[in-house]
Write a structure and sequence with these properties.
mainly alpha, about 240 residues, globular
């Protein structure tokens, strides 16, 4: 039994970590178009932005853990806002990195995903994404957030386990394009909201208080990360 189980695990690992054929160029272009279609129109963006919020709050949570803070909970709201609560020193590098991780997480996740797809590791990307979603689900502390995570995680599980290679490839490319493109818009939206006198306690404002650097500098960082990730990730995805 032990040898059989070991062989099965080895076979599973080979399947997950192995490479898969690149999809046709038309699939890559079509998934790019699909991502643009759900990010640019305001009506669809109000719905699809929930997925960006998952990545945003997940970024806060992951970096909080990596910097030694205690993650106590994550909440996702129907207006696409979110809240991640962690315990630890209210200042210092850990708090700064945690605060900076939100707006940079979606584009950086997209860049990492593009790197995996560029090397043909479609299955690995789907499994890693599923594992991250399931781990985040444990930390959700409100009903809407739990429902959002169950729907999103369930979709990844269904595609990873039941879909064929072509569907998996199209889904993976669509997700990565969405993270890259959708990761650009929130910082611009926040900056516009602050210009109208709103969002006075945004991530940029918290970072400004923590570092005594102007909020505009942090907006520059958010924009630089998202736009560079889009350019770099897009090149990886389009190189066939």
């Amino acid at each position: 039994m032990d040898s059989t189980a070991t062989a099965s695990l080895a076979s599973l690992w080979d399947e997950v970590s192995g490479t898969q054929p690149d999809p046709d160029l038309w699939v890559v272009i079509a998934t790019l178009g699909a991502a643009l279609a759900v990010v640019i129109p305001h009506g669809l963006w109000r719905v699809s932005r929930n997925a960006i919020t998952i990545a945003h709050e997940g970024g806060h949570g992951l970096v909080a853990l990596l910097t030694g803070r205690t993650l106590t909970g994550i909440r996702l709201h129907s207006d696409t806002s979110g809240l991640t609560v962690s315990r630890g020193k209210p200042h210092g590098i850990g708090m700064i990195l945690t605060a900076a991780a939100g707006y940079t997480a979606p584009p950086l996740l997209g860049l990492g995903g593009a790197s995996l797809l560029g090397s043909g590791r479609i299955t690995l990307l789907l499994w890693v994404a599923t594992a991250l979603l399931l781990a985040m689900l444990v930390m959700i502390r409100n009903a809407y957030g739990a429902l959002t995570m169950l729907v999103t995680g369930g979709l990844f599980v269904l595609v990873s386990w039941l879909a064929g290679p072509q569907v998996q490839a199209a889904f993976a490319y669509a997700v990565v394009w969405f993270l890259l493109i959708g990761g650009v818009r929130p910082a611009f939206e926040l900056q516009a909201k602050r210009a109208r006198g709103g969002a006075g306690d945004s991530d940029a404002d918290q970072l400004s208080r923590l570092t005594h650097a102007p909020a505009g500098l942090w907006f520059f960082l958010f924009h630089a990360v998202s736009l560079c990730s889009l350019i770099g990730g897009g090149r990886w995805l389009l190189e066939m």
